[in-house]
Specification:
mainly beta, homohexamer, Tachylectin-2, Chain A, five-stranded antiparallel beta sheet, four-stranded antiparallel beta sheet, about 45% strand, about 5% helix
Chain lengths: ~325, ~325, ~325, ~325, ~325, ~325
C-alpha cells in the first residue's frame, strides 16, 4: 500500500465517498462546482485556483477574471475547504521590484515548502510575454515576489515541496505563444537559491495520439510517496472543435524527478459535466491544487472547470498510484 | 571620439577601406562571400559563423549544413581572417553530459571572456526543442559543454565578454517555434557561475513598422566602449514573400545593459547582393561575429548570407556609434 | 442626472426591475430568451435583430437563418416588445437596383431618423464580399434599398438618428474577411445625401488585453444625451476556444462623434447563461437594438444570444452613463 | 408514393410518431440520447455508430472513445434497437493481415449486402494516415478485414447494399488531413472483387454558402427506391466558432449513382438540442446508420451527437424523398 | 485600328522597338532596370512608381523604401523618362488635415485629369490600417491632400482621367490585411466632388486558376480608346513559394466602366528576369504608370520589379487591344 | 558491381564526365539548363518533364506552363536528348472519356513497360481536386487516357516498368492539398488490369529532420538492378523561406517494393545554382525522368529547376547504389 512521505494530517479534508457503482479512480464532488462567479466580488469567473491547509482551516490563491477580463490573483480562506471567503482585492506584493513585472497573473499553484514558506507559482504577465512568476508568503497577509525563474514563454510552473539533491526544484511548461496555446512538454529545473535556475531536463512529452497529444503541463504540487513523486497533470487534446483539457497522473523518480517511472495512458478525469463543457473555454478540467491527508491517503483535487468555476474531485493515494502503475504508457 | 574598452590589438584585422562615394556606415568586402560550401568538406552551406583572434591568427566556429541538412558546428582556423581552413569533422564535446542534449547545433557565437576562456553560445537541438547551448574551449582543441542556460525555446544567445556586477551576463532571444520563426525580443539574463541563470530582463522589442518589426536577436559579442555596450543585432521584417533579415546596432548601458541608450532606427546592412538575396533562405544578412582592433577602432563583421555563405563587412567603432546615436529610435 | 435628447416616450417599454442584490449596471430579463426558432417559420435561429417603436407598438427587422443556413432579414411586429409576430417571408426591396447586390443579409439595425424615415443598416452579401447595406421604410410595408455606403469588407454599420454638422453620419466596422472574422475597429463616416460617403475617421480600436482585444463593432443606434452620444457596442476577445462577444458602452462627443469621451474598461454584459454560451456560435452576446423611454431613461436592449436567439436586458440612461464615466479606459 | 426496393420488413423498427405541430421532415426521438458513455465499459463516449437488423433483433458496430481517447470499434446487440448491450472488448479481426493496418477505427457503417455478408466500412488508422477500412462478418462473431479500398486520406466510406453494373460500389470522402478536417466532397468508386478499386467519379461538392459549405460526406448505406438511391449525408458549415455538422439527403441515379438527381438545399436535421450542441465536439449531428421498414417506409436514423452520444431520429421514405425533390438545390 | 481618345502627343516618349523574333505583345526595355536604389538618396529601393508628361519632360511620384524600411513617396523629374532626378526629401502635403492620416505611403499612381490637376492616388497608412490616399498638385511643387475616398482596408486605387457620367471615378482593390495580402477584386466607385464616394460596383474578380487566381488590382490610369477604357492591371497567383505578380489588361465599357468587355486570359508580362525574380519581394512585376503617345499609339509602361527597382516595358495601343480581344477570358 | 536488369542499350545517352575534383555522386551538366521557355511556343516555363528512348532518338512529355499559367502537357522529340523539339500544341487524348477528367496536367513521368506500351503518369486536374492521371501511347502520335488509379488528392505517381507478382505496380504520393503542398509519404499500389487498384502499402515517410522532413515523392521510373529497385525521389524540407526540394535515392526490395532496403540519409542533389534557386518556385530540383544505359550503367537524370526550366545531371548505377547503401538512414 502506497504511503505518503512528509505528509500532514488534514482531518477536515473535504471528502465524499465514491458513488455506488462508480469504477473510476477519481470521482467528482456531487455539489460541483464549489466556487463560482457569485462567490467573488465583480468576478466573471473563478477557476484554476490553489489551496493549502493553514491553521485549522485552509487558505487559497484564486484566479479571478474580473469584468475587464484581465486575469488576476486574489486570496481566500475557508474552514472546510468548500465554502470560500474570497478577498475583494487583488493580491498585492509587498515592496515588489517593478523590474520583474506583474501585469497580470493566472493559474496559481501554492506549495507549502519544507523551508516553512508558502510559495506561489503562477503564469505572470511581463513586458513582452508571460512566464512563471514566483513569490511566497508566511502568513497569507504579506506576499513577496521573487525573481522569475525562467525567460518567456512559460505557462505552468509548480515547485516541489522540498529540496531535491539540495536544490529547489520546479516543473514547468515552456510553451509556444504563437499558435493558440499549441504544443508543449513538462520540464524540470533546479535552483540553489530560488534566484538562479538551471540544470533543465525534459521530463515528458505529449503522446502522438489520444487525450494528451497536444501539450501537457504540471498540476498541483507533486506528492511525495514511497513509490516516487506523484504528479497530477493536465493533458490537452486537439479536436476539430478546439482543445480538450483532461487530467492524468505520473510517478516520477524520487531523486531524479526528470525520470518518469509511470504515466497514465488513460485520463483520470475528462470534461463530461455541463459546467466543464460550457463556459469561457469549453471542455476544460484543469487541476491546480490537491489536499492530501497523510493519515488516510485521501486526496481532494481542486480543478478549474471550463475556465469558469472551481470543481472538486476525490481519490486516494493508493488508488491513483495503483491505477497509474497498471495503466502506464 | 568613441573608445573601445578592454579591447585588443588586431594588427592583421581583415580590412578594406570604404569605397569611394559610399555614404553608408557599414560597407561590404568587395570579394564577398569569403566562405562558401566549397571551403568545407561535404557542405551544403557555411554561414552564421563566429571567429575570434587566437595566437597570431584567428579561430572560428562555423555553422555547416551538411548533405543531410542537419545543422552542425565545425571549427576552423585562419591566418588572415579571410581564407579559412575548416575541419572535416563536427565539433565534439569532451566528456559531455548526455542529459544536456546536443542533437544539432547552429548559429554559434564565440566570446573571449575576461576569465580567459573562449565561450561558444549556439542554438542547440535538445530533446523536444531548441535552446541556447553553452560551452567553452581554452585551446580550440578540447571543447567542454556546460549546462544549457535556459529552457526551450530560445534561438540566439551571446555572452558578454566580461562579468557585469559580478555576474556572467547573456543576451538571448526566447522565441516562438510554432510560427515559422515568428516574433521575439532580446532579453538579458545573468548567472553567478554559468550553471544557474536568473534576473531576466527584457531589453528591446520589435518595432511596429519597418525592418525590425517581426523579431530581433543579438549578434556578435557586445563591444565595450566608453559610450556603453555596442550591440550589433539582427532585425527581421515580414514581407509578403517571407522574412527579411537585416543588421542594426544598439548602445546598452554599461552597468545595466538591459537599458537601451540608443538603437538604430535605420538598418546598417540589408540584403542587396545576389549572394544575400538568393540561397537556402533568401534575403538574409545575419551578423554572428565581429573583430575589433582597439588601436584603430576598425571592426570587421562576419555575417551569414542567405543561409548559404559567409560575408564580411566593415565599419569603425566611432562611425557606428555616431550613426547609432544620430539615428536612434 | 443624464438626460436623453431628442427622445420619445415609450410608456409600453418592456421592463423588469433590477433583481434584488444585483450590482451590475445591465441586467437580463428573467424570461430570456424572448424570441427563438419556434417564433418564426422554418427558422434555424432568430438573433441579432433590431426593433423600434411604431404606432402604439413596435416593429422590427430580424435576422433569420433559415433551414438552408443563409442569413436573411424578415420583419415583425409586437404590441409589448416581447411577444413578436414574425413574417413568414423574407424582406423584399421595392424596385431595387440589382447592381447594388443583396445576396443575403444579416445583423440589421433599424434607426428612426429625424428625417422621418426608418433606416435599416445590415451586413449585405454582394458579389465578391459583404459590406453595409442601407435601406429605409416609412411604413414597414414597403422597403427601399439605397446605395451601399462603403466598399467591401464591412460587417456592422449603424446610422446616427439625426444629421451631424448637416450630414448623415454612420459608424461601421470595416473588417478582415480572411481570418475568421479577425481584428477590426469602429470608424465614423458622413454623407450629404446617403448616396456618397466620405470624411472617414477612426473612432476606437481594440485594446491590447481583455474582453475587447480582438475587434469592436457598433451596436444599436447611438442615443443622444446631454453627456454625448451613448454608444452601446460589442467587443470581442480571442480565447483558446474561439471568440467571446461581450457588450460595452462609450460616450462620443456630440458634435465630433469620432472623438471618444469615455469608454468602458469593463464589460456591461458577457455570455454567462446557457442560452448565451451554447448554440450555433458559442459565447456570444451581441446588442443590435435598444428602446429608450425618454420619460424615465429606461433602456431595453435587444441582443443576439449565441447566434441562436434574442435576449433582452435592461438598464437606465443614467446608470449606464455613470458607469461608463466611472469605469472609463 | 416512393417505394423501397430490395428492402426488408422490420416490424420491430424503433419508432415514435411525429410530434403534434411539428412540420419538419425528420424528427428526434423524445428520449434522446439513446446510448451514452454509461452504456459501455470504460467509455468516454459512444457515437457515430452503425446498426442493422439481425435475427429477430439488431446488431451494431459502435465507435467508442475509451479512456485513452483512442477511437475504437466495438460490437453490440439489441432486441428493440434502443437499448443496446455493448461488448466490453474492442472488435478484433480474425487472422488479419497486419500489412493493411488497423491502429484505430472510427465512424463505422454496416451494410447488409445482397451477397449475404455484413460489411463494415470505417475510418481506419494506418501507418502514416487514415483511410477507409473494409471488413465483413456473417454472424457478428467473427470479423474479417479486407484490403483498404483507397489510399490515405479518406474519412467516410459506405458501400452500396448491392452490386451496381456488376460491380461493388462505394461512396467516400477523400479528405484533407492538414486543416482541422477541412474541405471535401463525395466520390463514387467501384470494384469487381472488393480487392481492387477504380472508376472514381466525383458525385457532389460542398456549396458556396450555407449548411454544407465546408465539406460533405456520405452517411448510412444508400436506400434503394424507385426514385433512385436515397442517400442521407452530413454537410459541414464553417462558423466563427468552428464547424457545424448537419444532415441532408440526396437522390442518386439508380444505375449511375455518381449522378445526382436531387439534393436538399435545406438541412433535415441540425444541432439544436443540448446533447447535440455540447460535448467533445460541439454542434454535431452525424448520421451513420438507418433502419428502413419496407412495409411502412418508416426510417429510423441513428446519428452521433456532439461526438459524445447516439441519437435517434425518424422519417419515412416517402416524406424524405418528397422533401428532397421539392427543396432541391 | 484602335485609337486613343483625349490623348496627348509625347514625342519624347521613351521607346525601344520590339526585339527581332519576339512575338510577345509587351516587351522589356533592354537596359532595365532604369531606376535603382543608387538613383535616390538613402534608398533601400525605388519601385512601384508613377510618371506623367509635364512641360517638355516628365514628372513622377516614386515609392522609396528608405533605410528604416518605411515606404514613403518622393517626387522626381526627367527629360527623357529614363534618367530620373529624385528628390532627397519625402513628398510633403501643404496645410494638410492631420485627421486624414498619412503615416506612410506607397504604390502611387499619378493621373492628369481633364480638370487640369495632377492627382495622386496611393496606399496610405492611416491610424488602424491602410486605405487609398488622394491628393493633387498643379505644379509638382505644392501638393494638397484630399479626404481618403474609402474606409480601410484598400491597397490600390487609380482615378480615371476624366469624369464619367459627370462624376469622378476610381478603381480600387479593397483588400484583406490579415492573410499576407490575400484575395481581392477590382471595384469601381464614383464621386461628385472627390470628397464623398459611392455607387460602388464590382468590376472583376480573380479567376479560379492561373496567373490571376489570388487577387487583382488596377495599375496605371485607364487609357481612353475607341474600344473602351484600356486598363492595365496586375494579377497575383499563389505558388508554394509565395505570390507571383504579373501584368494583364482589360477593356472596360466607356460609359459603364464596371462592365468588362474583354480581359486577358494570358499574362502580358510575368517575372522572368533576375531583377524581377530576386529582391525584397521575389517574382513581382507591378505596373503603376504608363505614358501613351496619342500620335503613334506607343505605350511605355513603368513597373515595379521585385519591390526593388523600376523597369520599363513597351507596347502599342493597337497591339495590346488586339491581344486582349483575341485572348479574352 | 551493381547490374541493371531488363535494361536497354542507349549508346547516344547524353553524357558528360564528372568534373575534376568533384566528389559528389551526382553531378550537373555544364550547360544547364538544357530546356527553357525559349524552347517552346508561348511558354512561361518548361520543367518537371519526362523522356524515354524511342527509335534512334528520344521522346518526351513535358510540363509547360503557358501564358495563362495553367500547367499542361506537351510532347517533344530529340536526337541527342539535349536539344528538344517541343510540340506547339498540348497533348490530346484520343477518344477520351470525359468522365475521368483532364482539366490540366503536370509533372509527367513516362515509363516504357514490358508490355510494350509507353505509360504516362502525371498530376491530373479533375473536378474537385487533383490525382494521378494515367495514359499510354505506342507511337507518341496517339495517346489514350485510362481510368485514374486513385481518388483525389494525389500529386506524384510513377508506374514500375514491369509487373510485380503478376500485377501492375505504382508508387504515388497521396497528399494534403490544404497546406501549401504540405506533408506526404510514398505509397505502393497494385492493379491486375490498370483499371482497378488496391493492396496499398506505405513505403516510406518523411524524416523528422533534414532535407526530406516535409514530404517525399517518387521521381523517375524505378530502375531494376540486382540490388533491388533503384528509386530516385525528391524530398522536401521546410525552411523559414518556404520549401526546398532536393533529390535522393532508395533501394526497394525487388519482389516486395514496399520494403525499403536502403535510403539516402544525405541528398544527392540540392538547389545550388541560380537556375535552381530563382524562378517561379525557388530552391527546387525535381527529378522526373532518367535514362539508363544498360551497357555502361550511366544514368542521365532530367530534373525540373525552380519550376522554370529543365536541368540534366549524371551518375552511374554503380555509384548511386554504392552511395545509397553506404549512406543509408
Amino acid at each position: 500500500m502506497a504511503k505518503v512521505i512528509n505528509g500532514v494530517s488534514i482531518p477536515n479534508l473535504p471528502w465524499e465517498d465514491k458513488p455506488q457503482g462508480c469504477t473510476d479512480t477519481v470521482w467528482r464532488y456531487s455539489k460541483n462546482p464549489i466556487i463560482t462567479r457569485n462567490d467573488a466580488f465583480e468576478a466573471n469567473s473563478v477557476f484554476n485556483s490553489a489551496v493549502v491547509p493553514f491553521g485549522d482551516g485552509f487558505r487559497g490563491v484564486f484566479r479571478i477574471d474580473s469584468y475587464d477580463m484581465l486575469p488576476m490573483l486574489r486570496t481566500g480562506k475557508s474552514r472546510d475547504g468548500i465554502k470560500w471567503e474570497i478577498s475583494d482585492d487583488n493580491l498585492e506584493w509587498t515592496d515588489r521590484n517593478p523590474d520583474i513585472g506583474y501585469e497580470y497573473g493566472y493559474d496559481p499553484r501554492v506549495i507549502k515548502h519544507e523551508d516553512g514558506k508558502y510559495y506561489i507559482c503562477w503564469c505572470n504577465g511581463v513586458p513582452g510575454g508571460h512566464t512563471i512568476g514566483l513569490g511566497y508568503t508566511e502568513d497569507f497577509e504579506k506576499f513577496y515576489q521573487l525573481e522569475s525563474p525562467f525567460l518567456v514563454y512559460n505557462r505552468n510552473g509548480v515547485l516541489f515541496p522540498r529540496k531535491i539533491n539540495g536544490k529547489y526544484a520546479m516543473l514547468s511548461l515552456p510553451t509556444n505563444p504563437g499558435s493558440g496555446g499549441g504544443l508543449g512538454s513538462i520540464w524540470y529545473s533546479e535552483s540553489p537559491d530560488l534566484e538562479y535556475w538551471g540544470h533543465h531536463r525534459d521530463v515528458m512529452h505529449p503522446t502522438s495520439l489520444g487525450w494528451q497529444n497536444n501539450k501537457i503541463g504540471p498540476g498541483p504540487a507533486p506528492i511525495e510517496t514511497d513509490e516516487g513523486w506523484l504528479l497530477i497533470y493536465h493533458g490537452v487534446m486537439g479536436s476539430c472543435a478546439g482543445l480538450v483539457y483532461s487530467m492524468g497522473a505520473a510517478i516520477l523518480d524520487i531523486d531524479e524527478p526528470w525520470k518518469v517511472k509511470y504515466r497514465t495512458k488513460k485520463f483520470l478525469l475528462k470534461p463530461w459535466e455541463p459546467y466543464e463543457c460550457m463556459g469561457d473555454v469549453h471542455t476544460v478540467v484543469f487541476p491546480c491544487a490537491s489536499l492530501v491527508d497523510a493519515d488516510t491517503g485521501r486526496i481532494a483535487i481542486y480543478y478549474g472547470c471550463a475556465d469558469t468555476s472551481v470543481g472538486l474531485a476525490f481519490t486516494t493515494v493508493d488508488d491513483i498510484i495503483k491505477y497509474t502503475k497498471e495503466n502506464s504508457l
